[in-house]
Amino acid sequence: MGFDIIDGAAWERVLHNITTFKFSFSFHKSTWTQESVELESFSTPFWLEEKRWYVTYDRCTVSGFSLLYSTPYFKNIYSWTYVKGPIMTKSTKPQVLSYSNINYLYVNLKFPINTEILRRFTNIQTLNIRYIDRYFSILIRDIVPYLDLSKITMFFIQPCCFTLDLNVLVRLLSKLFGKLNQSVQTLSRLIDVSFLVLISSEREKLTWLQLIKTENVDFNNPIFEQFIYRLELYLNRTITDNNEKREYVQTLFLLQLPSIISSSLFDQLKTK
Q1: Are strands 54-60 and 66-71 parallel, antiparallel or unpaired?
Q2: How confident is the model at residue 256 (pLDDT cuts 50, 70, 90)?
Q3: Which residue has the higher pLDDT, 183 or 116?
Q4: How far apart are CA 249 and CA 73, in angstroms?
Q5: In the β-sheet with 126-130, what is the strand arrangement from edge to edge?
Q6: What is the pLDDT of residues 27-51, one digit of tens each?
Q7: What is 162-190 written as a DSSP string?
Q8: pLDDT for 75-84, tens place per residue?
Q9: Which of 22, 37, 113 is nearest to 76 (CA)?
Q10: DSSP annotation string for 83-152
C-alpha cells in the first residue's frame, strides 16, 4: 500500500469484510518533510458509524517522531522515549485517551518527561526509575502527579551511585508511595539487593541469577547459601527468617537487566 497506510480511504477499500482492525504505525522525522498525516479520511461514515473504528495520531514537535494507531490503544508498550518535547495529538475519538494495556513504565530521569503522554498511562503496576539519585525532584514534580499510585505494586530503582542517605531515601519513598500494595520492607529489599549486585563481581552476578530459573527456592542450594552469606555481610546482620530469605531472592528477578549486569554475561545467561 506504500504511503496509502495513512489514507483511510485506501484502507476502506480492503476492509469491508473485516470485523476487527487494530494497528500502530510509527514514523520518524525523515519520513515526512512536512506535516502529512490528516485524519479526515478516517472520519467517514465507514470508519465512525459502520465499523466504529477510531484513529489517533501523535506527533512530537521536537523530535518529529509520530505514531498513527487505532483507538483504544491495543499494544502493551508505547515508544515514548522518542518523545523529546511537546506533543500534538489528533483523534477521531472524542473521549480521553488511555493506554490501559500498558502496566510497566520505565523512566530515565535524565531525559525530558512528557506529562501529556504520562497521564495516559492509567494502569501502571510496575514503575522502574533510573537516575533517581540525581533527579529526585523530577520524580516528585513530573512523574508522581500524573500516575495513579494506588495501582503500582512494584517500584524498582536502578541507581548508579546514590548521594542520598539510604534511610532517608526509603522514608521519602515510603511516604511518597504510601499507597503501594508492596510493603516498605519490600522497597528496602529492592534497594539492598540492587546495591549488593552493583558492588559484586560479574561472576557472582551471573551465578546468583541462576536462582531465578527455579520456581521454588531450595535452601540447601549452594548458590542460595552463598547469596545469603554475601547479603548478610553487606547488611551486617544475620537473616534467620526463611520467608525473608525467599523474598530477597525473588527481587533478583528484577535485576536480570543488561544495565545492571554486563551485556556479555547477560547474553551467556540467556543462552544457557
Answers
A1: antiparallel
A2: low
A3: 116
A4: 35
A5: 104-108, 126-130, 154-158
A6: 877 665 556 678 999 999 999 999 9
A7: --S-HHHHHHHHHHHTTT-SS-HHHHHHH
A8: 888 877 777 7
A9: 22
A10: --S-EEEEES--SPP--TT--EEEEETTS---HHHHTT-----EEEEESTTT-HHHIIIIIGGGS-GGG-
The dihedral formed by the CA atoms of 81, 151, 55 and 96, expressed in degrees to the nearest 10: -110
Give residue 161's pLDDT: 45
The residues near 166 (Cβ < 8 Å, ≥ 6 apart) are 191
Lookup result for grid cell 551471573: 206
Neighbours of 261 (CB within 10 A): 20
pTM of the model: 0.57
Cβ atoms of 8 and 44 within 8 Å: the answer is yes
Residue 267 pLDDT level (bands cut at 50, 70, 90): very low
> From CA 103, how far away is CA 109, in angstroms rounded?
19
* Phi–psi pair at 269, nearest 5 degrees: -65, -40
Residue with the three cell numbers 544457557: 272
